[in-house]
Each structure stands twice: as structure tokens, then as C-alpha cells.
Amino acid sequence: MSNYFKSGLRLKLVALVVTGIVSAFTIFGIFQVQVQKQRISDEMRRSGQERVSMISEAVANLLVGYDYSNMESLAERIVQQQDVQNLIIRNRDDKVMVARNKPSLPDQTSLSFTAPVQFSGEVIGRVDLQISLARLETEINRIYLDVVLQQVFFGLFLGLLIYFAASHVIVKPIARISEHMKQILSSKFDSMPEELALVSNDEIGDFTRIFNNLNSKVFEAQQQLREKIDLAGSALMKTNDQLQQRSVELEQRTQDLEKALDLVEKLAVTDSLTDLRNRRYFDDNVAASFARAQRFNEPLSLILIDIDYFKNINDTYGHAAGDSILQALSHLFKSRTRETDISARLGGDEFAFLLYRANREDGLAFAQTLLQKAQQLKFTFHEHPVEVGLSIGIACNWDDIHSIEALYGAADEAMYEAKRRGRNQVIAYPFDIQPYGGLKSVKIEPKT
Questions:
Q1: pLDDT tens digit string along 126-158?
Q2: S-S: 342 plus which of 144, 234, 354, 420, CB 3.0-4.6 Å?
Q3: pLDDT at 446 > cutoff 80
Q4: Which CATH superfamily is domain 279-437 in?
Q5: What gap in Å lies between CA 45 and CA 35, rounded to an integer?
Q6: Does 349 participate in catalysis according to the annotation?
Q7: Among residues 83, 271, 349, 412, which one is catalytic?
């Protein structure tokens, strides 16, 4: 019931109707008050004129006989009347014979009346009568009160009547449609919404039919849209699966490409047989290391190694035997290389070491260790034991060497000096240090 009285449309209808009724009654009341005011005013003017005429007739004989006592007594009685405010009796010379006044409020209005006093057809005086309009104002106030009461009563009565009538005939069907719309909006549209019952053939009935048709078309459109969404979702899932598959394939290809690039990069700077750095990598880093050593005045040693009689080994036991020796020596060289040093195969049976922050004495100690480890390697090819010797040359930048070419030349000269002195030994540039000798050079006899 509380929602019933809180309906905005109902209250608006009642407000409009009550406003119209109040406006109509106000206009009608004003007109009625003016009519009654005019009627009472005319009645008071007629009554006042009749009364002043009667008074003039009554005082005619008294005025002729100069009977002041009775004129004063008559004037006193007339002034005692409720609406009489002032009475003046004058003779033919306009001299005041009798005058009686009643005290009145300053803002009290009044009407004035005058009648001649005649005797035997001759005017012998005049009577002035002043009547208060207090009765007229009282009547007007009463009429105003009646109008207000009528407005309130009829306004409430008609407002409630129209309120309940409009609620039942107009607002209730609209509220029913609105509630049905809310139910449809809160539903999931899984099935066709129930049609709204048609209860009249007026505009609300037309609105109900339009609503049902619109609701049906919206449901059909939503079903079509849902089908399209489902199809689009299926296509999207399929496309997503394809994209994921392509992404996996692309990622695999990327990984393969990265591996291939890593391999290419490694092959570009690595010797494939020994897995040591190649000559290209070594030459590039020698330049940078030599420049850094010169800048910070640090020692840098270059070691060149050549395998003794390697060609005889290849010719006697085959290239497979030579490759085995190269791989074994490369494994030994890698195990002895610091992170700051570089070991490389320059080509054929020639190897090189670049020792950073190592002077000639450090290089000699390192080379002698390599020679001792290499002499401990034992090889057997076709049941023949083979020992490996190394000719090693060392050069250090601190030995008055100021260019890379000079460093290479000094190390190479030291290596060939080791070969000239019988191979299988270490020679450092300059040649003022006794060579280190290990096992004697072994000459490999040709294979029979």
C-alpha cells in the first residue's frame, strides 16, 4: 500500500488536478466575492438612502417647530444603531441644528447619504447620514472563508477521486507494463518472455500491443546475435588455437635459428677439429689485448707452439692419427688456459697462447708446464708407441717490443730457434736464457 501512494505518476496527476481545481475555484471565488460585495454595497446604498429619507420626513415637523429637544432625542436613537456613524440635521440656512457622532476606527470606511427636509413642498433643511461599511467587510470576510473551505473540501474530494480513478484506469496498467519490463531486463532471455495481457482497447492497449511486438523482435534479434556470437567465439577459438600452434612453431624455429646463429658464430671463431679458437679470433683479440697492455703498462706474453715431426706422423700413421694428437693436445691446452688467456689453433700443427699480465718468466713457467704435460701423453698407432714433442717460442712486450708485428716476429723467431736447437724445448726471446730440455727429439721412422 505504501508503494501505491508513493507512485510518482499518481502524485503528479493529483497535483495537476488539485492545482486546476484550486485555480478554478479561486477565480470563481473572486468573481463570487465581487458579485456579493457589489450586491451588499448596492443594498446598503439603497437602505441608507431610504433611511436618510425617512429621517428627513421625521424631522420636518420638528425643524419647523424648532423642537430641538425631540430632534436631539431622535438623533441620539438613530446614532445608537449599529451601522450609523454620524448624523447631522441642518436648517435652510445650512446651519447645524443637531449633530451626533459615534467614535470609529481611523481606517474604518463609511458611506455618506444626504436628503432634503421638506415641509409643504418647500425645502426647509437637510439631513446628512454617514453609515459604516463594517457590515460589508464582515460579509466579504465570511464569503472569503466560505470560498476557502469550498476549495479545500472540493479539492481534497476531487483529488482523491481522481487519484484512485487515475491509478486504476491509467497508472496501474502502466505500472504493470513497467514491472513486466523490469522482469524482462532481469531475466537471461533464455526463452521467449511472456506476453503482457491486453486489458483495454485504448491508448494503453495500443501501448501494450506495441510493447509485446517490440519485446518479440528484441528476443529474436538477441537470439540471432547470440548465434553470431557463438559462431564468432568458435571461429575465434579456432583461430586462437592456430595462432598458438603457429606461435609454438615460430618459437621452435626461433630457437633453431638462435642455435644455428650461435653455431655459425662459434664456427666463425672456433676451430672445428680442436674446439679451440681459430686464427681469426686470435688475431682480433691480440690487437685489443696488446693495446690494453700498452695503455696500462702491463706485461703480455705470446707463446707459439709447433708439434715436432707432425708431418711424419701424418705420413706414417695417417691423418686420423694426426687428428687424435691434435685433439689430445687441444684438450691439454684448454685445461691449462685461464679465463683471461686465449688459446688457439693457428693452422695445421701450430698453436698459440696469449697470456695477459704474464712476463717472460711467467710465460717460461707456463710453457715448461705445457711441455712436461705433453711429454706425458702416450699414443699408440698400429701397435707402435709414439711420443710427441713441442717446439715452443715465447715473446713478451716488456722486452723492448712495441707492436703486434714485432711481438709475433719475436715469438716466431724463438720457436724456430727451439727447432734449430733440437726441437722439444722452450725458447724465450731474447735468447739469453738457457733452453729448457726434456725428452730428446724422436724421429719417427716411416711406416713399413
A1: 888 888 777 667 777 777 777 777 767 776 777
A2: 354
A3: no
A4: Reverse transcriptase/Diguanylate cyclase domain (3.30.70.270)
A5: 15
A6: yes
A7: 349
